[in-house]
TrEMBL record:
Keywords: Membrane, Transmembrane, Transmembrane helix, Transport. The chain crosses the membrane at residues 31-52, 58-78, 90-111, 153-173, 180-200, 220-239, 260-286, 306-328, 349-372, 378-402, 414-434, 440-456. Its main location: membrane. The lineage of its organism: Bacteria, Pseudomonadati, Pseudomonadota, Alphaproteobacteria, Hyphomicrobiales. One of its GO terms (molecular function) is amino acid transmembrane transporter activity. It is a multi-pass membrane protein. It comes from Limoniibacter endophyticus. This is Amino acid transporter. It comes from the Bacteria. It is found in: Membrane. It holds the Pfam family AA_permease_2.
């Protein structure tokens, strides 16, 4: 069998005869909280200012556009995840539909996405935490507060610390960590709802004029609605982490669709409401350069206590993003290890029903990145890996609908040709709206991945030594 055409059997996923199984402990509320916890994070808390600076009040259109692309991707994920309830997310769907080589590229891109998101959020959390401690009279020495990219810096210890805490939560067990995640999500959502409630009475429609000062823009254009949407896209993804929990869902045929689509609906409505309120309550120029735009708006309105609560909720609840993506990263590693594309010892399950070895391995990897690298370097490449994964899911949806139209689909994406095409085209356009440096490093990462695949993974793949009923 040619390595580029090797495919795993969809039917074999349901039998789960290879590797140890994960415990089914999650219901749809846990999955929706996992998705909302991953989606609502540094994006809405910080990127609304960046987006407003690029698009002006038309940042509302940027949120809507990014939300539309992600909504289509979410529908594609919902259909494929209920058909293939196995850890691995877009990597697994690509393996079953598009073949091993394509799946490897997608999996390699997912490693990039999840690793960089976890590291970037940890570095962002560190900034909040250092400021919070400073306000209490505790000043960390610079060599422990930032990486070597800053003069006098050595390691970002707070970032490493929060990754270690979240890893410990995951090792306690999936259900336990999911329950704590749900509590922290409520805290985070309450802060955004409070912002809207307090800022809305100060709404001034004059702040929306001119509405689109920098135009609509497009690929390779650095300002405008499209440029803002390409950045704000970072604020929406995270629902794909739900798909990595497929094996741990009590009723995957129902729970996965509710969790994925439900979290996107909740977050899209919340984002547009917060963005509209922010623009209406303050001129864009007053908060576009702030690293904490929502808190700044509250302070400018004389609501210092509310501003403090928003800042505190970020410190308390941002670890939900870390938890969701560290969870997803470990499950992608698990899926690739089961398939032999990574060392199979990573697929071992602990007595608590979690992939302990791969979780610890993932934590060490992202801790090194968070401890030593800059936030902007981490965040920019994360988008590229996500766009690759989303585009592959849109393509897999279309191919499988055409190739196997009669297969049972517990959840069917409506208008599937539109959903698939919009997902693919949107991701391509957003990719070419990223900085050229980001595109270059993404290419280098995947060239390295192809070398690893050809040198080791191709020969150690389970499909290189077929297991009965495992190959398609």
């Amino acid at each position: 069998m040619n390595f580029w055409s090797r495919k795993i059997s969809i039917d074999a996923m349901h039998e789960n005869k290879h590797g140890e199984g994960l415990r089914k402990t999650l219901s749809w509320p846990h999955l929706m909280a996992l998705g909302v916890g991953a989606i609502v994070g540094t994006g809405i808390l910080t990127l609304i200012g960046v987006g407003a600076g690029l698009a002006g009040p038309a940042v509302l259109l940027s949120f809507a556009l990014a939300g539309l692309i992600c909504a289509c991707a979410a529908l594609a994920y919902a259909e494929l995840s209920t058909m293939m309830p196995a850890a691995g997310s877009a990597y697994t769907y690509s393996y079953a539909v598009l073949g091993e080589l394509f799946a490897w590229i997608v999996g390699w891109s997912l490693i990039l996405e999840y690793s960089l998101v976890v590291s970037a959020v940890a570095v962002g959390w560190s900034g909040y935490a250092v400021g919070f401690l400073s306000g209490m009279g505790i000043d960390l020495p610079i060599w422990l507060a930032v990486g070597p990219h800053v003069e006098g810096g050595l390691i970002n210890l707070p970032a490493v610390f929060i990754i270690a805490i979240v890893t410990g939560m995951l090792l306690l067990g999936t259900r336990e960590s999911a329950t704590l995640n749900a509590i922290l999500v409520v805290i985070k959502i309450s802060a955004l709802v409070l912002f809207v409630a307090v800022a809305l009475p100060n709404f001034d429609s004059a702040n929306f004029t001119p509405f689109m000062p920098h135009g609509f823009g497009g690929p390779l254009v650095q300002t405008g609605v499209m440029a803002a949407a390409a950045i704000i896209f970072f604020a929406f993804y995270g629902f794909d982490a739900i798909a990595t929990a497929a094996e741990e869902a009590k009723d995957p045929k129902r729970d996965l669709a509710i969790g994925i689509v439900g979290s996107m609906v909740v977050c899209t409505a919340l984002y547009i409401g917060v963005a509209a309120t922010a623009v209406g309550a303050a001129p864009v120029a007053s908060f576009s350069d702030s690293p904490e735009p929502l808190a700044l708006i509250m302070r400018n309105l004389g609501q210092g206590a509310v501003a403090q609560w928003i800042a505190a909720s970020a410190v308390i609840a941002l670890p939900t993003v870390l938890l969701a993506f560290l969870f997803g990263q470990s499950r992608v590693f698990l899926g690739m290890a089961r398939d032999g594309l990574l060392p199979t010892r990573l697929a071992r399950i602990s007595s608590r029903g979690v992939p302990a070895i791969v979780t610890i391995f993932t934590a060490v990897l992202v801790s090194v990145l968070a401890g030593l690298m800059r936030l902007d370097e981490l965040a920019s490449l994360a988008n590229a890996g996500t766009l690759m994964a989303f585009a592959s899911v849109g393509l897999a949806l279309i191919v499988l609908r055409i190739r196997d139209p009669k297969r049972d689909r517990p959840f069917k994406a409506p208008l599937w040709p539109v959903v698939g095409v919009v997902t693919i085209l949107g991701c391509v356009i957003f990719f070419f709206s990223l900085q050229h440096r980001t595109q270059f490093w993404f290419l280098i990462w995947n060239v390295l991945g192809i070398v690893v695949y050809l040198a080791w993974s191709m020969r150690n793949s389970r499909l290189a030594k077929p297991v009965p009923n495992f190959a398609a």
